[in-house]
Amino acid sequence: MSEQKVFQEFLAEKNLRMTYQRKTILDVFLKTKTHVSPEDLYNLVKKRDSSIGQATVYRTLKLLSEAGLASEVDFGDGVMRYEHKYGQRHHDHLVCEVCGKKVEVFDPLIEELQEKLAKKHGFILTNHKMYLYGICNKCKRLQKKTR
Amino acid sequence: MSEQKVFQEFLAEKNLRMTYQRKTILDVFLKTKTHVSPEDLYNLVKKRDSSIGQATVYRTLKLLSEAGLASEVDFGDGVMRYEHKYGQRHHDHLVCEVCGKKVEVFDPLIEELQEKLAKKHGFILTNHKMYLYGICNKCKRLQKKTR
DNA sequence: TATAAAAATGAAAATGAAAATCATTATGTT
DNA sequence: AACATAATGATTTTCATTTTCATTTTTATA
Questions:
Q1: Rounded mean pLDDT of B59-80?
Q2: From the DSSP assignment, how many helices (H) and strands (E) are in chain A?
Q3: A14 touches chain B (CB under 8 A)
Q4: pLDDT band for position A28 (50/70/90)?
Q5: Residues in B touching A110 (Cβ below 8 Å)
Q6: Paired residues of A102 in beta bridges
Q7: How far apart are CA A132 and CA A93, in angstroms?
Q8: For A81-94, what is each residue's pLDDT tens digit?
Q9: Which residue of chain B has the CA closest to A76?
């Protein structure tokens, strides 16, 4: 099923409307490759239709999250970012603290252990956030040179 | 070594000064039990000396973080929180999405796998954030009742 | 000990992301 | 068409955090 279709059904379910703006914002969002902030997306949307306001972009990103089409990524720099979720496998993020490079990572065993860890404390795990911070290969080499 | 001593040495190292305000703020911070926001701490500090300003509390918390005495905890609700770090074992957090209950958790195997995962991608791991979200035992039972 | 230099402080203002407000417009339903 | 409901965009507001800046405190130096 297409993302537009998923969104449509989500909206219908909630008695919300598929509007021209929402369609446009989803469309532009789907064309993005990396993690976009609401502001990033607003700037992209403006190019296509400058009459669309940034409040609507914020609102629509929230909806896309709820609909399972986008997921929030919080690298801790004070700006929320969104990435595609639909049809994407869950993954976490590995971030280089020097150059900011971001790698999507996944380890099924970690996922499993998280589940177990939660269960051990009487919790049913619904969600998690994991961010690994380090220094990437490139920056490691550069550091050696300049030292 | 006492926390005051650690702070003192950290400041000396950086050519910064141990002032009455910093001493007081550290002292009050050490008396806290859970995760405090800068505002929480500011309110506590005010009780002891109402002349200390909140900018100084913000500034000092930053320093305590750098000194390894406090660590930042970001539950994603838009407020930074700080917890004791000195002499505490590293741990992650398990949060109940219903009642907000927070449990400190630790799994050495997960830690190890995180290291490996980073290495696999050519990174040297320096740090990580892991937050597990779920529903705690209590809230689970309540949900069943009301259904 | 005086004095100069450097750092720290508190009050206030500035910042910036996100949310709320509200008058207007669009959409869907009888 | 007429009505009710929802959505929109511009703007304002909120709120945590940061910055500014004049003043005060601390430290190093003469």
A1: 96
A2: 6, 5
A3: no
A4: very high
A5: 110, 113-114, 117
A6: A95
A7: 6
A8: 999 999 999 999 99
A9: B74
pTM for this prediction: 0.91
- For chain B, how far is it from start to end, CA to CA, in angstroms? 54
In this prediction, residue B147 carries a pLDDT of 64
The SS3 of residue A147 is coil
Place of tokens 């009487």: A122
User: What size, in residues, is chain A?
Assistant: 147
**Chain segment B91-112, per-residue pLDDT in tens:** 999 999 989 999 999 999 999 9
A136, B123: Cβ pair inside 8 Å?
Answer: yes
Q: Is the pLDDT of residue B143 over 90?
A: no
Average pLDDT over residues A125-146: 91
Chain B contact set for A122 (CB, 8 A)? 136-137, 140
> Across-strand partners of A84?
A70
Q: Which nucleotide comes closest to A74 if you measure CA to C1'?
A: C17
Structural domains in chain B?
A: 3-84 (1.10.10.10), 92-146 (3.30.1490.190)
Distance between start and end Cα atoms, chain A: 54
The protein residue nearest nucleotide C17, judged by CA to C1', is A79
Positive or negative torsion for Cα B16, A98, B112, B80: positive
- State whether the Cα torsion B103-B109-B113-B115 is positive or negative: positive
* B94 inside 8 A of chain A by CB: yes
State which residue has its Cα closest to the C1' atom of D15. Answer: B78
The residue behind tokens 């305000």 is B21
Instruction: Give kind and range of the element (H or E) at residue B29.
Output: helix B20-31
**Residue B73: Cβ within 10 Å count:** 19
